[in-house]
Write a structure and sequence with these properties.
The chain has 111 residues and is mainly β. The protein is 0% helix and 46% strand. The mean pLDDT is 93.
Amino acid sequence: QVQLVESGGGLVQPGGSLRLSCAANFSTLYRFWVRQAPGQEIHYVSHITSGGTRYYEASVEGRFIISVDNAKKTLYLQMDNLRPNDSAIYYCAQDAFGAGRGQGTQVTVSS
């Protein structure tokens, strides 16, 4: 059974930073970050391939960095220069549509 622990969310002012973590006992399956704002569908944010290539949705390119620590079985998302429209519940997932996601971690960007 896959177990996920997502953490690192919180309330931050515009321009601030957060680092999200996703610890999974089957970490090789979880290489995507997606997010869902209130009343909206799941949206792709970023993913990292098994070879280490990183991909980003256009609005977060240059502000977010995805990484993985295979020894710790943990996926990370460093988020800098946060904007109010980054506010959402963030999930790690098995694909860009949010498959297998857990409870997520809330990110709120507000002054």
